[in-house]
Amino acid sequence: MNTGDFNLIPSQILKKIKDTLKTKGVRNLRGLGRAFKYVAPSKAGRKLDKTEFYSSLRAYGVEISRSEGETLLEHLDLHQDGLINLDAFFQGLWGTPNATRQKVIDEAFWKFDPERIGVINQHELRVAFDSSSHPKVLNGELCSDEVFIQFLQAFGDKHGDGSITKTEWDDYYSAVSSEIESDDLFILLLKQCWRLQ
């Protein structure tokens, strides 16, 4: 056992995981959410058992010690039922967008779900999605449709129906938010992407 593990707190372990994932690029940070979702998609309440949690981390090259794992597992087992609460994990990993950012994240989602059902589909999104300023579109590497398909895949469209829930939307933009320091830049990107006023 590493003697440095004794005083670790959950936020330090989450930072270590996040730093490891960042070395692999932001797509893996978002992709980690998809990996967890695919391991146990039918579990209610977005929870995983200890084995599923570890295997998902290892799939992304994240190595934590046994004592780090036990500390984190205890912290994330909110109901003391032996299951990891993924919402708590993602919030700790990505942080929560501040109120200014969350307002624009919500505004973009509700634009496509005015009845506030909590689900939007790809046809509703495609009408408004603007990838014209995306770097890969500008350099000719991808066309607008390919960028849109990649965007949908980032949500882990397991059933291929293009439906995105509010929770998936918030998770995605929490990850994006964690990579952009400037509130003004984050808001500008969302407003341009979704043609918000």
From TrEMBL:
MF annotations from Gene Ontology: calcium ion binding
Top-level taxon in the UniProt lineage: Eukaryota
Residue ranges of every copy of the EF-hand domain listed in the record: 45-91
InterPro entries per record: Ca-bind, EF-hand-dom_pair, EF_hand_dom
Keywords: Calcium, Metal-binding, Repeat
Keyword Cell wall biogenesis/degradation: no
SUPFAM superfamilies referenced in this protein's UniProt entry, alphabetically: EF-hand (SSF47473)
Protein name: EF-hand domain-containing protein
Protein's organism: Halteria grandinella
